[in-house]
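Query form — protein Putative ABC transport system ATP-binding protein

QUESTION: What is the three-dimensional structure of this chain?
INPUT:
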Amino acid sequence: MSFITAPAPPDTSTAVRLVQVRKTYPNGLDQTEALASVSVALRPGSFTAIMGPSGSGKSTFLNCAAGLDRPTSGHVVVGDVDLTTLRPDALTQFRRRHIGFVFQAYNLVGHLTVAQNVQLPLLLDGRRPDQAWQDHLMHAVGLDGMADRLPGQLSGGQAQRVAIARALITRPTVVFADEPTGALDSHTGQQVLDVLQGAVRDLGQTLVLVTHDPRVAAVADQVLFLADGHVVGHLEQPTTELVAEHLLAAAGR
Ligand SMILES: Nc1ncnc2c1ncn2[C@@H]1O[C@H](COP(=O)(O)OP(=O)(O)OP(=O)(O)O)[C@@H](O)[C@H]1O
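ANSWER: The structure tokens for Putative ABC transport system ATP-binding protein are given below.
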């Protein structure tokens, strides 16, 4: 059976499934293989950390899994929907409704208030914000009283908390986060991670997070290690020490 051409069967026992996902980018006359036939299945409600050296394919993994980038071949299934079969407009709509994404650089809109930034995914989808839900999220991420501020009036940690509330406002199936604590000092990073983890746990959502930090990865249920576009390791119930050992061993190989 060829996974390349056969559509992936629906499977609601996984929140996110990558089936032989390959992604290449043009590189002059050559091609860079950012992901080389990666297959993983993440269960609903799980928290997965993605680690690996620079250039190993972590962001490409996240972007393909979140439907921000299309794989060159293979399938990405979120819930029971195969994203690779959707037309661009249907994919955009699916992403807005079912996927939350937190970027390292926050990606807030500078001339919109905190409240407007949080509401943005709903407004872009033509839906009305649910004020009670928005208030709940603002409170959950520690932004009470900041609804009318502009992003330029926030600290990095506060800005990232706005980005988290924005990612959760649609009650997405999965939240993807690309080094959400990478631009923050370790104390603020820990607070932001607590907020993200707590919000996702309370909502029963699935979280997939890229990080370079073994302490961040240790909070996850499992860690996937990437190298040269391949999944080369997997750790269940990680600890900071186990993750660090794994990274050291991989660096020495
Ligand atoms: N848009 C692109 N065009 C061309 N090459 C790309 C593009 N995006 C990524 N690549 C290449 O694909 C490979 C994987 O990149 P990716 O950004 O996924 O790695 P990463 O593990 O997230 O790295 P980092 O930790 O430095 O962010 C690298 O060789 C990178 O240069």
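ADDITIONAL NOTE: The two ends are 34 Å apart (CA to CA).
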